[in-house]
Amino acid sequence: MLTGSAVCSPLMSTILSGCTTGQKENQESYQPQFFSKEQYKLVMSVVDIILPKTDSPAGTEAGVHQTIDSIIAKVYKKEEKEQYASSFAKLENYLLEKNFEKLNVEEKTQLLQSLDEGNPADPIRKAFKDLKQQSIAFFLSNETIAENYLNYLPVPGDYEPCISLSEAGGKAWAI
User: Fold this and answer.
1) Are 60 and 48 contacting, i.e. CB atoms less than 8 angstroms apart?
2) Got the DSSP string for the chain?
3) How far is 107 from 100, CA to CA, in rounded Å?
4) How far is CA 15 from the centre of its chain?
5) Each residue of 115-151: b (16+ CB within 10 Å) or e?
6) What mean pLDDT is predicted for residues 37-52?
């Protein structure tokens, strides 16, 4: 429940505060607000392993890393920031010990998969799962991704006052 709250609360704040086009600041000019520059580079690497470029953009191409940094900096309460920083530091230390940045893509993937499948009580695994959940949630809520790579039905849709039931797919709309 805590993880769900941590992911949903900032996500809802972002959704309710207005839409963005999904176009983030240029990666070179963006200044991390929560993470240090080294941590931010690590977040970028992890996000691109979680969400690699396929027929859709990679996580960093969609600005997921910037969204994570910005949400934590602007939305999380002080205590939540401290808890996230403490948790992330454990993950960061683990990945630094494993020379994560020097590994190839397959080795990075295997290392993160072993964390994903590890002991549920492990605080390092928890930190990774939190980052993974945020990455996926922010990727899927990105306007560009939603419109171009997912089934997208803008709400509210076009107003059509007088259509037959067959034009509505054979069923009346619930709302």
Assistant:
1) yes
2) -HHHHHHHHHHHHHHHH----S-PPPTTT---SSS-HHHHHHHHHHHHHHS--SSS--TTTTTHHHHHHHHHHHTS-HHHHHHHHHHHHHHHHHHHHTTGGGS-HHHHHHHHHHHHTS-TT-HHHHHHHHHHHHHHHHHHT-HHHHHHHS----SS----SS--TGGGTTS----
3) 8
4) 13
5) beeeeeeeebbbbbbbbbbbbbbbbebbebbbeebee
6) 96
Whether 84 contacts 76, CB under 8 Å: yes
Q: Is the pLDDT of residue 31 over 70?
A: yes
Tell me if 123 sits within 8 A of 113, measured CB to CB: no
Q: Are 65 and 43 in contact (CB under 8 A)?
A: yes
Query: Can you say whether residue 142 is alpha, beta or left, with left for phi > 0 and alpha for psi between -120 and 50 degrees?
Result: beta
Confirm if 128 and 91 have CB atoms less than 8 A apart.
yes
Would you say 29 and 155 are in contact if contact means Cβ atoms under 8 Å apart?
no
Q: pLDDT (tens digit, 9 = 90+) per residue, 70-94? A: 999 999 999 999 999 999 999 999 9
The residue type of 38 is: E
Per the model's pLDDT, the better-predicted residue between 4 and 122 turns out to be 122
